Fold this protein.
Amino acid sequence: MRSQQSLEEIAEIHLLLEDIKKEYETGIRTVLRKNNPTMFANPHTIPKLQKIQINRGLGLAAQNTNILKKSIEEFTTITGQKPIITKSKKAIAGFKIRENMELGLTVTLRGEKMYTFLTKLIFFTFAQIRDFRGLSVRSFDKAGNYTLGLKEQLIFPEIDYEDVDQTQGFSITLVVSSSSPKTRSRTIDKVLNGMILFKFLRFPLNDSGYYEKYSSFSEVNQVWDRKKHLRRKRWSQE
């Protein structure tokens, strides 16, 4: 017989699979505010996913029309949206790059397409990665956004193995938006907001490794402050 906790987890996953946007608006936001009335007294401070940016750098290979066309088709198939071709802003002779030269592709997903892609990424795509052990919590940036890299496009169910000439990866950035007050505008608070949101969305964050020896978040915060102090001390001596 399944435990009550496992049944609740299964129910949560089914709700997210059915409509992840609706579950966030009606379920997750309410739970966050109820469990943390002091932290999220203002509803605008509750973290939310603003957009997802997907990028692929092709370099000089983008000058090959067939390679560029194939990448555009893959992006359109995976995201449901046609990508924008990124171009160089200035010439760099050492890298044989001219000004306004095509170098890669980018897509920005919002709204329904963003949530559709997120559902596919969490519940289907990560499961296709060999020896997948979760994603590092150390990939958050100072703004609380999360960036991950995928080595190949074959892990997406829409891509047919026989149609792929060469495996190419891309980077995915999940941009989190939250209007934090000045008292909670530090980097550690922004990262914490992102971690809380992703945990509720069943994002496979791996909390072990570097952080498993600490029993509470306050201990991790103290370690960060100590390292910051030592870094400043070293700089002042130099």
In short: The longest strand covers residues 48-57. The domain at 4-207 is CATH 3.30.1440.10 (50s Ribosomal Protein L5; Chain: A,). The helical segments are 4-18, 20-35, 65-79, 111-125, 187-200, 217-237. Confidence is low (pLDDT under 50) at residues 233-238.
